[in-house]
Every structure is written in structure tokens, then in C-alpha cells.
Amino acid sequence: MDEPWFKDGLRFKCTGCGKCCTGSSGYVFLSPHDIEVMARHCEISVQEFIDLYTRIIDGQLCLLDAPRTDECIFLRDKQCTVYQARPIQCRTFPWWLHTIKNEEAWQAAAHDCEGINHPDAPIIEGNHIAVECMTYVDNLVEQNSEFDFKN
Ligand code: SF4
């Protein structure tokens, strides 16, 4: 099997700039597992979490933006307030399939995320990137799973 183009690793370190958590162009889609983890973190039921913090886009549940802003509802002063319980989509960034599919896509992503290719960033091993990307892909399936509203 061919080795991936990123086999020698890629440089990334989140600077905490918060840019990926703002802006109207992106959505954080949620799996049932994401909802359960976040609801537990917020100490509310799954149904309460869905009612308070989610909306439906293209038939899928995703996080709300804060009122009158394009920021994620859980962002405060550029900090994620649910970081320990953040969704898999956030957790696996920037190791998304379309971000690492080739070098051109990676360089394009660097225009939006200052942590990509940041001079102070460590080199993340290719094997680790591949595992994270598989988690991302598996999660795409999970995001389309049926929700159990009984919790
Ligand atoms: S845009 Fe990149 S550097 Fe900024 S918060 Fe998001 S992941 Fe971190």
C-alpha cells in the first residue's frame, strides 16, 4: 500500500486563537456520543442539551452559535468552555480527510488556521495523523446515527 504524503509528519500546534470556533461558514455536527458526553459535562439530560444547545442543519444536529454572533455557543473570550468534553469533530481538527487529502489542501487550510505549519509547532507523526483521520471518518458515520431521546 502507498504511504500517505504526510508520512514524515506535519507541523501543528493550536495557538488558541479561536478562529475555527467563529465564523458563519462552519458547523459543528454532533454524534449521539458527542451529545451524551457534553450533556454529562453540563450536568443536564441529553434532551435538555439538544433543546438548549443544538439546531438541525441538513438533517443533522449541530451546535448553536451564540446569539447575535457567529461564535460557537460554548466559546468565551476565545476559550472553549467545554474543552474536556468537546465534540469529535473539534477534537480531530486539523486531521480531517479533506484537510490532509494532499499537500495543496493542507497549505490551503493553513490560511485559515495559524497553528498549521506554525514555526513553534511540533511535528505530529504520520501514524498519529492517520489514526486521528480514521477517527474523524468513523465519526462522520456516527454523526448520521439515530438519536435516542430517552435520556
Ligand atoms: S484556528 Fe487553528 S490555531 Fe486557531 S484555535 Fe483553531 S485550531 Fe487553534
> What would the average pLDDT be, to the nearest integer?
92
Question: C-alpha Rg, in Å?
Answer: 16 Å
- Helix proportion of residues, in percent? 25-40%
Number of helices: 6
The molecules bound to the chains, other than polymers, are: iron/sulfur cluster
What is the total tally of β strands?
6
Structural class: alpha+beta
Taking strands numbered 1, 2, ... along the chain, how are they ordered across the largest sheet?
A: 1-6
- In the predicted model, the low-confidence regions spanning at least 5 consecutive residues are none
Indicate the proportion of strand residues: 5-15%
- How many distinct folded domains? 1
Gap from first CA to last CA: 44 Å
Helix-strand pattern = EHHEEEEHHHEH
Main sheet characteristics: 2 strands, antiparallel
The coarse overall form would be globular
Describe it:
The chain has one domain (10-143). The protein has six helices and six strands; from the N terminus they run E-H-H-E-E-E-E-H-H-H-E-H. It has helices at 32-42, 46-53, 88-91, 97-100, 103-110, 126-143; strands at 10-11, 54-57, 60-63, 75-76, 79-80, 123-124. Helix 1 crosses helix 2 (46-53). Strands 1-6 form a two-stranded antiparallel ribbon. It is an alpha+beta fold and 151 residues long. Bound molecules: iron/sulfur cluster. The site of iron/sulfur cluster (SF4) has 11 residues, from loops.
